[in-house]
Amino acid sequence: MNGKNLILGVAAAIVVVAAIIVAQTMVSENAGSPATVIESALLPVAMVQAGPVLLTAEVASTPEDRAKGLGGRSGLATGEGMLLDFDKPDLYGIWMKNMQFPLDIIWLDTNLMVVHIESSVSPTTYPAVFKPSSPAKYVLEAPVGFVAESGLTVGATVGISGI
Question: Which Gene3D superfamilies match (predicted)?
């Protein structure tokens, strides 16, 4: 190895080490503070694991927050969503009132098993109401493509931390 290659190799190694240090610093600064994951989060945040996909979801657990949902927002970033947490399982209907972007909507029972899925629900479907055929305690509103990317199907189970 000549002198130039040695210098380039050392410089590249320094850049890689610096990048790792910066990344670890950012992770440890955010550790224990899930609300920092979604900077614009107005609600508590939970992490949803669906197959290989991790989603950061604001948790709407009051009637007012659930009724508003994602209505009035201009969109969702990749990896973000909203989890509607109801008091008890029921056949909760979801509509696209005041929505400006489409969603994948997933209903989950108390065991976090998928009981119903509606993919690519458009705002133009309002005032139609989408309901599961089995009771659900949670409804996950995710960016379009989440269901396909995660491989979710009815009967699959998701993991949720932070609720």
Answer: Protein of unknown function DUF192
- Identity of residue 140: L
The string of pLDDT tens digits covering residues 79-101 is 999 999 999 999 999 999 999 99
- CATH code, domain with 111: 2.60.120.1140
Say whether both 143 and 154 belong to one domain: yes
Which has the closest alpha carbon to 107: 81, 126, 72, 133? 133
What is the DSSP code string of 68-116? HTTTT-----TTEEEEEEEEEEE---B--TT--S-EEEEEE-TT-BEEE
For 56-67, the pLDDT digits (tens) are 999 999 999 999
The range of the structural domain enclosing residue 71 comes to 34-161
